[in-house]
C-alpha cells in the first residue's frame, strides 16, 4: 500500500496538526529504469551506424534517374562519359522494347540497350532521324557536338557500321516512334511515323514491330511498384522547402497562436476548433478531388515538360490519389457527423479548459517551453529524412545475368559484341530492408521519447502549481519548468525510454501484422468466410484498443513520474488506481476535453496539409527538375510533422488538465474526499452538484 503523496509534494499536515514546509517537490529521488536508458543510448549508436551505411552507399539521385547500358546513372557528371545534363533514359532498340513486353518472353526491359539524353527524340516529318550511341573510338565528336547534332552521326559511319545499324545492332538506331518524358524516361507512343518507317524500309532495315506492346512495356516498367516507391521517396527530397515551411514553421506558429487563444478566449475555443476542423477536412478532401481529376482540369500528369496535348499517359500515382480521395470522403462524413454529436458536450470541455488556461496564465513559461523539444526534433528529422533517402537508394549497381540476344556494335573494339551486353540494375539485399525498418522504428521511438520528455516536464511544472494551492507562492520554483526539466534529466530519462519503447513496440507489431495482411490479400489467401472476416476485423479493433490504452496509461504514468519520481511501471500502477477510483467523477469531463484537444491538433496538421497542397501546386513543383510525381506523400509528411509539432505544444493544455485532475484525485483520497490543495476553479468544475448530476446522466 502506497503512502500519501503529501510527503513527496508540497505542504502537508503532520500528525500534530502543523504544516510541514519542505518545498513543492521533494528531492528524495533516485535514478529509475536505468537499464532502458542504456538500451536507448545503444539504439542511438546503432542508428548512427545504420545511417552511416546509407550515406556511404546511397545516392538519392537513383530514386529519380535511370541507368544506361554501361551502368552509369543519368545526369551523373562523374560518369564515363560525363552525363551532366543528360538526365533522360532512352531505349535505343525498339525491337528489344517490344520483345520485353511480349507475354512469357525471357527478355527484360532492363537488358535493352539504353543511353541518357537531354530530351526525348521525335521522328522527322520528311526524313529519318537517328539516335547514335555515345561517341567514342573512331567517332571523333565531343559530347557537346553530339548533342548539337541531335545525337546523330550516321553520316560518319563506315559501311560495316551502317550495315550493323540497319540490323538494329548500332551504333545508330532509327527514330520510328515518338516519345515523351515520363518521369525522366522516354515513353514510346505506339504510333509509328509512316515517313520514317518508309525511309527505314527503303534503306533495307530489318522489320520493326509496331504493336501496342512497345508502349505497354515501358509503361509497365515506369509504373512498377519499386519505381513508384522510388518516386515517392524522391518527392520528399525535392519538396524539402515545403516540408520546412508547412511541416515545421507553420505548425509552430499555429500552435503558439492556439495556446494564446486558449489563454485569452477559452470560452470560444471549443466552438472555434470544431468549426475550423470541419472546414479544413472539407478543404483537404476537395484538394484530393482536384488532383485526382474529378473536379476541374488540374489532375496530376506523369509527363514532364511540353508535349502533344493529345498524348495522355496515366501513372499509378493517379490511382493512389483517387483511392485517398475516396477514403477522405468517408473520413469527412464521419468527422462532420461526430462533431455534430459532441456539440452538446462542448460546455464540459469549456469548463475543464478554463482550468488549463489559468495554469498557463500562472506558469507562463509553459507556452514557450515546447520550442525546446521542437528544436531538437527539427534537427533530428532533418538528419533522419536525409539518412532515409540515402538508405532507400543504397543498393549496388550490378550487371544483370541474361541469356538473351543483346548484341550491339562496340565502337572501341570495332565489331559487334555479344559478350556482357546485359543491362544494369540496382540490387537491394535483404539487409537493406532490415536497415530501413530499423530506421523507421528509430524515428518513431525517438519521436515518442521526446514527446514523453516534454510531457513529463510540463506535468512537473503543473504539479508545482497545484500543490501550492494554485497560487503564486515562494514555494514554487522561480522557473518551475526548468526545475522540472532538471529532475527529468537527472532521474527519469530511463522511464521515458521505457514508456516510449512500449508505444513503439506495439505500433511496430501492428505495422507488421498489417503488412502480412496485405501480402495475404495479394496472394488471395485471406479468409473469405463471414466468420473469418469478422474475426479479422475484431482482432484489428482489439489491437487498436490496446494501442490506445497503452498510450493513455503512458501519459498518466508520465504525470506520476513527474510528481513522485517513481519508476515507469510503479507510476503506471498508481495512475491507473487513481483513475479507476475516480472514473465517474473525472471520466467524461476528461474525455470531452481530450476530444477537443485532438480536434485542435488535427486543425493544425490539416492546415499544414492545405498549405502543402498550395505550395506544391506552384510552377516550381509541377514542371522541370523539381516536378514531383504526386503531392500525396509530401502532403502526408507535412500533416504528420504538423501533428507532431501540435502534440508538443498542445501537451501544455493536455498535460495540465490531466496533471491537475490526477493531483485532485490524490488530494481527495489523502484527505477523506475533500481536496485541500485544489484551485477554486477546479473544485467548482468537478465538485459542483449540478455538474455531477449532468455527468452521470
UniProtKB/TrEMBL annotation:
<keyword id="KW-0472">Membrane</keyword>
<feature type="transmembrane region" description="Helical">
    <location>
        <begin position="628"/>
        <end position="653"/>
    </location>
</feature>
<dbReference type="InterPro" id="IPR007603">
    <property type="entry name" value="Choline_transptr-like"/>
</dbReference>
<dbReference type="GO" id="GO:0022857">
    <property type="term" value="F:transmembrane transporter activity"/>
</dbReference>
<protein>
    <recommendedName>
        <fullName>Choline transporter-like protein</fullName>
    </recommendedName>
</protein>
<feature type="transmembrane region" description="Helical">
    <location>
        <begin position="595"/>
        <end position="616"/>
    </location>
</feature>
<keyword id="KW-0812">Transmembrane</keyword>
<feature type="transmembrane region" description="Helical">
    <location>
        <begin position="34"/>
        <end position="55"/>
    </location>
</feature>
<feature type="transmembrane region" description="Helical">
    <location>
        <begin position="488"/>
        <end position="513"/>
    </location>
</feature>
<comment type="function">
    <text>Choline transporter.</text>
</comment>
<feature type="transmembrane region" description="Helical">
    <location>
        <begin position="323"/>
        <end position="343"/>
    </location>
</feature>
<keyword id="KW-0325">Glycoprotein</keyword>
<feature type="transmembrane region" description="Helical">
    <location>
        <begin position="449"/>
        <end position="468"/>
    </location>
</feature>
<comment type="similarity">
    <text>Belongs to the CTL (choline transporter-like) family.</text>
</comment>
<feature type="transmembrane region" description="Helical">
    <location>
        <begin position="240"/>
        <end position="262"/>
    </location>
</feature>
<keyword id="KW-1133">Transmembrane helix</keyword>
<dbReference type="Pfam" id="PF04515">
    <property type="entry name" value="Choline_transpo"/>
</dbReference>
<feature type="transmembrane region" description="Helical">
    <location>
        <begin position="268"/>
        <end position="290"/>
    </location>
</feature>
<feature type="transmembrane region" description="Helical">
    <location>
        <begin position="363"/>
        <end position="384"/>
    </location>
</feature>
<dbReference type="GO" id="GO:0005886">
    <property type="term" value="C:plasma membrane"/>
</dbReference>
Amino acid at each position: 500500500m502506497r503512502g500519501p503523496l503529501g510527503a513527496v509534494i508540497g505542504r502537508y499536515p503532520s500528525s500534530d496538526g502543523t504544516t510541514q514546509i519542505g518545498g513543492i517537490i521533494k528531492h528524495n529521488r533516485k535514478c529509475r529504469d536505468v537499464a532502458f536508458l542504456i538500451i536507448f543510448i545503444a539504439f542511438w549508436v546503432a542508428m548512427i551506424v545504420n545511417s552511416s551505411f546509407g550515406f556511404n552507399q546511397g545516392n538519392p539521385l537513383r530514386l529519380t534517374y535511370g541507368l544506361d547500358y554501361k551502368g552509369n546513372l543519368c545526369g551523373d557528371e562523374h560518369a564515363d562519359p560525363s552525363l551532366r545534363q543528360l538526365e533522360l533514359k532512352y531505349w535505343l532498340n525498339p525491337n528489344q522494347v517490344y520483345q520485353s513486353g511480349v507475354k512469357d518472353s525471357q527478355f527484360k526491359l532492363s537488358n535493352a540497350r539504353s543511353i541518357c539524353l537531354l530530351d526525348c527524340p521525335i521522328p522527322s516529318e520528311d526524313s529519318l532521324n537517328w539516335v547514335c550511341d555515345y561517341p567514342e573510338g573512331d567517332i571523333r565528336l565531343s559530347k557537346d557536338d553530339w548533342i548539337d547534332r541531335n545525337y546523330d552521326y550516321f553520316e560518319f559511319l563506315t559501311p560495316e557500321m551502317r550495315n550493323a545499324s540497319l540490323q538494329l545492332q548500332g551504333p545508330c538506331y532509327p527514330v520510328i516512334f515518338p516519345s515523351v518524358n515520363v518521369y525522366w524516361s522516354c515513353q514510346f507512343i505506339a504510333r509509328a511515323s509512316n515517313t520514317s518507317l518508309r525511309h527505314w524500309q527503303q534503306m533495307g532495315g530489318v522489320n520493326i514491330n509496331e504493336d501496342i506492346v512497345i508502349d505497354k512495356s515501358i509503361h509497365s516498367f515506369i509504373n512498377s511498384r519499386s519505381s513508384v516507391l522510388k518516386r515517392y521517396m524522391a518527392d520528399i527530397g525535392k519538396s524539402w522547402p515545403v516540408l520546412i515551411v508547412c511541416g515545421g514553421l507553420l505548425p509552430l506558429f499555429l500552435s503558439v497562436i492556439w495556446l494564446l487563444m486558449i489563454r485569452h478566449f477559452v470560452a470560444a475555443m471549443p466552438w472555434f476548433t470544431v468549426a475550423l476542423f470541419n472546414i479544413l477536412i472539407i478543404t483537404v478532401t476537395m484538394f484530393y478531388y482536384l488532383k485526382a481529376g474529378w473536379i476541374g482540369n488540374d489532375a496530376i500528369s506523369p509527363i514532364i515538360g511540353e508535349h502533344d496535348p493529345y498524348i495522355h499517359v496515366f501513372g499509378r500515382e493517379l490511382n493512389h490519389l483517387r483511392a485517398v480521395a475516396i477514403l477522405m470522403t468517408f473520413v469527412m462524413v464521419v468527422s462532420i457527423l461526430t462533431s455534430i454529436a459532441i456539440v452538446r458536450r462542448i460546455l464540459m470541455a469549456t469548463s475543464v479548459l478554463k482550468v488549463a488556461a489559468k495554469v498557463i496564465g500562472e506558469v507562463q513559461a509553459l507556452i514557450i517551453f515546447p520550442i525546446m523539444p521542437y528544436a531538437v526534433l527539427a534537427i533530428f528529422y532533418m538528419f533522419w529524412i536525409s539518412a532515409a533517402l540515402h538508405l532507400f537508394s543504397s543498393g549496388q549497381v550490378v550487371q544483370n545475368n541474361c541469356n538473351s540476344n543483346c548484341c550491339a556494335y562496340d565502337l572501341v573494339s570495332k565489331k559487334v559484341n555479344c559478350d556482357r551486353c546485359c543491362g544494369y540494375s540496382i540490387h537491394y539485399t535483404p539487409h537493406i530492408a532490415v536497415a530501413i525498418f530499423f530506421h523507421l522504428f528509430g524515428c518513431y521511438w525517438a519521436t515518442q521519447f521526446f514527446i514523453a520528455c516534454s510531457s513529463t516536464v510540463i506535468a512537473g511544472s503543473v504539479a508545482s502549481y497545484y500543490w501550492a494551492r494554485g497560487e503564486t507562492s515562494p514555494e514554487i520554483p522561480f522557473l518551475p519548468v526548468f526545475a522540472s526539466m532538471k529532475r527529468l534529466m537527472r532521474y527519469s530519462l530511463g522511464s521515458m525510454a521505457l514508456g516510449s519503447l512500449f508505444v513503439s513496440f506495439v505500433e511496430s507489431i501492428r505495422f507488421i501484422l498489417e503488412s502480412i495482411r496485405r501480402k495475404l490479400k495479394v496472394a488471395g489467401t485471406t479468409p473469405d468466410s463471414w466468420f473469418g472476416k469478422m474475426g479479422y476485423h475484431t482482432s484489428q479493433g482489439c489491437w487498436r484498443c490496446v494501442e490506445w490504452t497503452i498510450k493513455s496509461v503512458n501519459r498518466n504514468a508520465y504525470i506520476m513520474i513527474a510528481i513522485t519520481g517513481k519508476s515507469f511501471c510503479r507510476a503506471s500502477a498508481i495512475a491507473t488506481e487513481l483513475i479507476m477510483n475516480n472514473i465517474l467523477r473525472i471520466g467524461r469531463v476528461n474525455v470531452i476535453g481530450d476530444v477537443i484537444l485532438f480536434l485542435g491538433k488535427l486543425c493544425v496538421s490539416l492546415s499544414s496539409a492545405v498549405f502543402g497542397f498550395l505550395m506544391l501546386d506552384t510552377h516550381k513543383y509541377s514542371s522541370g527538375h523539381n516536378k514531383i510525381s504526386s503531392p500525396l506523400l509530401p502532403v502526408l509528411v507535412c500533416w504528420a510533422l504538423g501533428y507532431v509539432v501540435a502534440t508538443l505544444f498542445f501537451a501544455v493544455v493536455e498535460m495540465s488538465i490531466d496533471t491537475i485532475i490526477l493531483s485532485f484525485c490524490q488530494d481527495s483520497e489523502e484527505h477523506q474526499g475533500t481536496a485541500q490543495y485544489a484551485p477554486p476553479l477546479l473544485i467548482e468544475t468537478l465538485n459542483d452538484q449540478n455538474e455531477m448530476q449532468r455527468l452521470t446522466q
